[in-house]
Amino acid sequence: KIDNESATLRVKAPLNVVMNEGGDPHRVLARNAACHQCRRRKLKCDAVRPTCGNCRKPRQRGPEKYEPPETCTWDETRDPSARTLRKREAKAARGISNGRPPSSNPPIWANGSTSLTALPMFQHQVLHPQPGVSMLDPRVQSDADYYRLYNGGGMPPSMIAPIRQPSLSTDLLDTSLPSAHLPPFSPHGITNNIHWSEPHPPVSHMGGPSSYPQHQFIAPTPIATFPVHDTPPLQLNPSVSQIMYSDWPRDLPQPETVHHMVEVFFARVRVLPHMFHRPSFLANLSLPPSNHEFPTLALLHGILAVTAPYIPPQSLASRAYFPIGSSTEAYVHPEYDFTPRSALLPASSLVTFTPESIGDGSPLHRFQMWHRRKSYECLSQLVTNGVQLVQAVQAVLCATWVDVKNGWWSDVWVESGNAVRMSLPLHLNLSSSAMSDPLSHNIGAILREASSELEQAQRDRTWWVVYLTERAAATGSLWPNAIADDDITVELPIARHIFDSGVGELVGVQTFQSPDFYSHHPPQHRDTLSMYIKVTRVMSDVLTFMRKYSRGLHTFQRFFSDPRFQQVFTDIGTLRSSMPEEFKTSTTNTPHGPVVDPDKYTMIDLLHCALITIGGPLITHQSWMLPQARHILREIRHVVSNYLELAATSYDITQLSVHSSFIWFSAARNLIRFIHCAARSESVQAQMELPAFEADLKQLLGALNRLGERFPVALRYAKVLE
After folding, report:
1. Exposed / middle / buried, residue 475 (Cβ in 10 Å: 0-12, 13-18, 19+)
2. Is position 221 within any domain?
3. How many structural domains are present in the chain?
4. Exposed/middle/buried for 41, CB within 10 Å: 0-12, 13-18, 19+?
5. Quick check: is 38 in a domain?
6. Which stretch of DSSP H or E encloses residue 353?
7. Alpha helices, DSSP H, located in 63-173
8. Region labeled Disordered — which residues (predicted)?
9. What is the CB neighbour count within 10 angstroms for residue 180?
10. Residue closest to 378 by CA, chosen among 468, 320, 304
11. Measured at the alpha carbon of residue 105, what is the angle toward residues 103 and 106, in degrees to the nearest 5?
12. Per-residue pLDDT for 641 more than 50?
């Protein structure tokens, strides 16, 4: 005879729950779902993780009664077979035909840790959820428990705001995903249909104080005189919100997250987006992963890794940014592979792995290191198979810029050199319009000829990003360059508006061998990227001169009479005097008003930095008052004034290029020399100038600390100065 309570339970129990004679429900486990210890002892296992009921009992563990239970070991989770998937689809089809709507949430018994007796408590939690508390772990009873267990006691719950939903009325570009796009079970709660309007509060980021004001996510960011809300928000692609291809890679987040981060990549990341034709790339990203036009996994992982600093940490900590292969019980981003590593290991000649132990375990570090490592693993397969080699070079560049922003200069040196070495056999550094010499003994290019001018233009732009990246590695040191300028014959990239149109003449006309390279700027090359390349070449010549000049004894006569110094100084003057008017200011006039161009700002400051660097030997106790040294002081104050003008606006300083950290460091380092000279001098002028020097140095240190909230390399520069 069955009492009413047992009968009620029997009616409500799912198919995989069976009643025993005592009325207690127990589940029929799937094959090999029991732990290894119970299977070895021939015991019935309840499959409760991490330690099952049998293994909690002292008599099952051994003679030690008070010995703490050991964690059970389990079989690795495997994907369901094709037969199981067909059965599930057939069952869902029968349910739909019977009028039952398909269930989007898995049963609460699917993870093997919730019994039927927990059903009333689970229903109560669903009806009365607590914000920020996960429903999946029975150890979590409050927000404090959640952050104690899964966030290392880090951010308090009061510092985390719900994620907003963007709408047509949203005035700002938010780089966090809306809560409606999160999985049903996430650390943000399960009430995902609420429309939040509060902005993100400040949170701790990369070990220092940080805030993510909403105006920093505007592309481009207006200055104070231009209203913020006039800039339209960046819209996610609605065509991918309901699509999940069956062959979507398990190491990537869900497609909507990838599309969103690619949009942020084009809007926020500096230099790297110049390699791609944005409409073509976004169109290829919407294809199935099995399509040969779909971007390679190495490139996608690299893009995600380099874009991570522009995503708020609380968003990176959500399950929306986890790989789709993550366990349903995971509360932090995974650090290790889901399956044993392939026998095809990354080639040592292509990869330098920075130890992951140097990170702080933050969501940014976990996300960035995961995709950086995956990018190199996929890159090894591309190089081994000899396919998609141009995208392989682009993937190396994306991963290298992760190390640039973190200040890992040894890795940057090796990886940027690898990018150059990979480009040379592809003839990316050579002009596509030059006639081949039949008497030449050079081996032909590995790549086939470009099928269109647009493809050739993308190859040319990829090379110039390789050049900028390799020269950036030299700014952090005085190590030699990987390739000489004489070996580069490819034309400068075409202007951006012509390249984006995809029609017309897409190959440039000016090269490094042009006699008027610094004095003439053709209309098809009159854009920020081409001018940035010219300034970078001048800066590279300055560093090369300083590296070779420093091998001997310094004297003023030897310094000024050196023909290399005279040539570099002439090139700087020629480029500065011929610079078009629109490139002498960091703002650009648009129909909505003046906006800041970060690349143009960096290019202007880098030209000042070239003069500051080459004039460093002139700042001594005997010569710091000479006109030549005072000219260097004026260049330093130009850098400081440019920063103060930008800081006085609503522009977010952390949106600048990471190269600004080196420029400010060079200006501050030479300013410290002036401070030492003025402190030792007893003249009245020196004592009057000393407070101004110290005030300028304080501004540069503040700029480095502000930029360091997003890029750790700036904090390292600030530490060196201090």
Report:
1. buried
2. no
3. 2
4. exposed
5. yes
6. none
7. 82-97, 119-127, 143-150
8. 88-108
9. 13
10. 304
11. 105
12. yes
* Token pair for 515: 């006699």
Task: Tell me how long the chain is.
Answer: 722
Amino acid in position 338: F
The answer to whether 331 touches 134, Cβ cutoff 8 Å, is yes
Residues of the domain holding 39: 4-61
Are residues 157 and 31 part of one domain? no
Residue 344 corresponds to which amino acid? L
Residue 124 tokens read as 């109560």
Q: Are residues 47 and 154 in the same domain?
A: no
**Quick one: 182 and 35 in the same domain?**
no
pLDDT tens profile 259-304: 999 999 999 999 999 999 999 999 999 999 999 999 999 999 999 9
284 membership: H or E segment, kind and range: helix 278-285
Backbone φ, ψ for residue 698 (5° rounding): -65, -40
Q: Decide: 642 and 575 in contact? Cβ < 8 Å.
A: no
Number of Cα atoms under 13 Å in the Cβ half of residue 625: 12
Report yes or no on 16 lying in a domain.
yes
The 10 Å Cβ neighbour count of residue 299 is 27
Beta strands in 481-524 (DSSP E): none
Q: Cβ neighbours of residue 320 under 8 Å, at least 6 residues apart? A: 177, 181, 182, 183, 186, 253, 254, 257
Give the Cα separation of 276 and 295 in Å (integer).
11
User: Could you report the per-residue pLDDT of 394-446, keeping only the tens digit for each?
Assistant: 999 999 999 999 988 888 989 999 999 999 999 999 988 866 665 555 566 68
Domain boundary, last residue among 44, 61, 78:
61
- State both tokens at 71: 């964690």
Q: How many CA atoms lie within 13 A of 672 on its CB side?
A: 12
Q: Which amino acid is at 450?
A: A
Q: How far apart are CA 429 and CA 408, in angstroms?
A: 26
Asked if 272 contacts 398 with a C-beta cutoff of 8 angstroms, the reply is: yes
**Structure-block tokens of residue 586:** 């960091």
The tokens for 70 are 């050991």
Do 155 and 33 have their domain in common? no
Pair 576, 584: CB distance under 8 Å: no
Final residue belonging to a domain, choices 345, 373, 401: 373
User: How far is Cα 490 from Cα 510, in angstroms, rounded to an integer?
Assistant: 9
| Judgement on whether residues 55 and 152 belong to the same structural domain of the protein | no
In the predicted structure, residue 218 carries a pLDDT above the cut 70: no
Confidence of residue 243 (pLDDT cuts 50, 70, 90): low
DSSP strands (E only) in 95-219: none
Whether 314 contacts 188, CB under 8 Å: no
The torsion region of residue 330 among left (phi > 0), alpha (psi -120 to 50) and beta comes to beta
Helix boundaries (H) for 287-434: 297-307, 313-316, 363-385, 389-406, 409-423
Q: Is residue 243 part of a domain?
A: yes
CB 396 within 8 A of CB 411: no
Tell me how far apart the terminal alpha carbons of the chain are, to the nearest angstrom: 82
Per residue in 533-546, pLDDT tens?
A: 999 999 999 999 99
662: CB partners within 8 A, 6+ apart: 475, 476, 609, 717
